[in-house]
Amino acid sequence: MLCCDRCQARALLCKLRRMNSSIVEAAPAIRKLHELACAVRLNAHSPYSGYRVGAAIRLADGDVYVGCNIENASFGATICAERAAACAAVSARGPIQIAAIMVVSDASPPWPPCGMCRQVIAEFAAPDVLIHCANPQGELMTVAFAELLPVAFTPRHLEP
């Protein structure tokens, strides 16, 4: 028996932890996010690292926004694909609610979002939102957002 609803939710999220599979086995909506993230990944500006990353964010209403990494000679000015997609969504729509995220990199195993991206995701996603990390070859890792950033600083911390 868990002490409260929050602990029960946390236990459920732990069950979702690191579900590894193949994109071929994924639901059609996840395959579509993969397709979009793979396509935008080709637009990446990555002359310094050589790593191209694409992201597709599906909002609660089903709309999808994409972004790719944009490197800069001043490394701190680099924008990751996940943040580029979130910025595109907010720029087009105003306030958003993220329902799912797909991040595609060349890496094996696939890369998860970096710390800065996790903090931006925390602004727009509930703890149970699934983050799908994949590569073009179809390797897929799915993690609940709360597993990536379990003690996120969120807008609720700024409420009086």
Describe the structure.
There is one protein chain. The protein is an alpha+beta fold and 160 residues long. The protein has a single domain (25-158), classed as 3-Layer(aba) Sandwich (Cytidine Deaminase, domain 2). It has helices at residues 5-16, 28-41, 81-93, 115-124, 145-148, and strands at residues 19-22, 54-59, 64-68, 98-104, 125-134, 139-144. It has a six-stranded mixed beta sheet with strand order 1-6-5-4-2-3. Helix 4 (115-124) links the parallel strand 4 and strand 5. The longest helix has 14 residues, at 28-41. The chain is globular and about 45 Å long. The N and C termini lie far apart (33 Å). The model is unreliable at 12-17 (pLDDT under 50).
How do you describe this structure in short?
With 160 residues, the chain is α+β, with helices and mostly antiparallel strands. 33% of the residues lie in helices and 24% in strands. β2 and β3 form a beta hairpin.
